[in-house]
Automatic annotation (TrEMBL):
Identification of the protein by name: NADPH-dependent methylglyoxal reductase Grp2p
Coiled-coil stretches: none
Gene: GRP2
Similarity annotation: Belongs to the NAD(P)-dependent epimerase/dehydratase family. Dihydroflavonol-4-reductase subfamily.
Pfam families, alphabetized: Epimerase
Organism the protein comes from: [Candida] anglica
Native organism taxonomy: Eukaryota, Fungi, Dikarya, Ascomycota, Saccharomycotina
Length: 327
């Protein structure tokens, strides 16, 4: 009998790839979405009788996941991906920090109270709960030391705080409540890559790092951005390894591949997408050499033991899909 996996935030960029992979491997999947319209659209795209959805309109409302879990006693694995992904600087406490933290607490409580048959929880955390500065050496044991007050100082700080406090709450719950389920967390850096079921409207936040370069006209100066990337298909696969492979329980996995700068992204786009030749800036090829990484992900790579998709393929797949959707 196939196992059933519950995934929160099933409409997300990363989540849709996880759903696609789970279905291709024969799992049954129940996804939480915020509205019927979003659920129906996803169901149509997934196009499998092994996929169904439940509405969880508001991550934060008390008992948000209780009804969905009560209705699905067949679920044995929970993947929690839903969280606000934005650096918007309005009311950061209300819009970023509290939904992320309370949403995670709601998941933990719902599993314990309503679904004792669930044995594994995987949370999509982030590199920002490992470190938000990027200047000191970190590995799978590192935690961001950001405070609540610091979290409220900017949109980015709020995102970093939201992921850090949500993750800490989850490990604390495991420690103090000793539930029936184990926890593993996935910590990606910037996630690039194509959408699982084609581009529909706006791209998700991290892919706009790549797509916004298409707006730089020939001769335009290239703003400096340097970071680390991982392809979305590798992030999806890591979520499966995190519940399938013996020894994953209790582990934190850092998902990072190579470094990039805006200039290295442009160099890839200009060399590989002939359609854009002469329509976007070339910048100064070879400039903006990325600084070396400060992340030690040796333990994760050894555990996951699969080959990551390289930056060139990730960027070309992202841009080719994006420009064909704009036609
Ligand atoms: P995404 O496409 O924006 O997906 C976010 C998901 O969370 C969507 O399903 C969204 O629902 C849901 N969501 C957001 N705020 C919500 C709220 N207040 N109530 C209920 N649902 C809410 O982003 P993503 O890149 O796939 O991110 C997925 C997870 O990966 C997040 O936990 C994020 O922090 C983490 N992550 C992402 C990156 C990256 O570079 N992309 C890197 C590290 C970690 P709607 O579709 O209805 O908006």
């Amino acid at each position: 009998m196939a196992e059933t996996v519950f995934i929160s935030g099933a409409t997300g960029f990363i989540a849709q790839h996880i759903v696609k992979l789970l279905i291709s491997k024969g799992y049954h999947v129940v996804g939480s979405v915020r509205s019927t319209a979003k659920g129906e659209k996803l169901k149509q795209n997934v196009n499998s009788e092994n996929f169904s959805y439940e509405i969880v309109e508001d991550l934060e409302s008390v008992g948000a996941f209780d009804a969905a879990l009560k209705k699905h006693p067949e679920v044995t694995i929970f993947l929690h991906t839903a969280s606000p992904v934005t650096f918007a600087e309005n009311d950061v406490e209300k819009e970023i920090l509290l939904p992320a933290i309370n949403g995670t607490k709601n998941v933990l409580k719902a599993i314990k109270a309503q679904a004792p048959q669930i044995t594994k929880l995987v949370i999509t955390a982030s590199i920002v709960s490992v470190d938000s500065v990027g200047s000191k050496s970190v590995d799978e044991t590192s935690f961001n030391s950001i405070t609540w007050e610091e979290s409220k100082t900017s949109g980015f700080a709020a995102y970093a705080g939201s992921k850090t406090f949500a993750e800490k709450a989850a490990w604390e719950f495991i420690e103090t409540e000793k539930p029936n389920f184990t926890l593993s967390t996935i910590h990606p850096v910037y996630v690039f890559g194509p959408q699982a079921y084609g581009v529909d409207g706006e791209l998700n936040f991290s892919n706009t790092v790549v797509s916004k370069l298409l707006q730089l006209k020939p001769g335009a100066e290239v703003p400096v951005t340097i970071g680390s990337f991982i392809d979305v298909r590798d992030v999806a696969e890591s979520h499966l390894v995190a519940f399938e492979k013996e020894g994953a329980a209790g582990q934190r996995f850092i998902l990072t591949n190579s470094r990039f700068s805006n200039q290295t992204l442009l160099d890839i786009i200009n060399a590989n997408i002939p359609e854009l030749k002469g329509k976007i800036t070339e910048g100064i090829p070879g400039s903006q050499t990325p600084t070396p990484t400060t992340i030690n992900d040796k333990k994760t790579r050894e555990f996951l033991d699969f080959k990551y998709i390289d930056l060139k393929k990730s960027v070309v797949d992202t841009i080719e899909q994006y420009i064909s959707s704009q036609k």
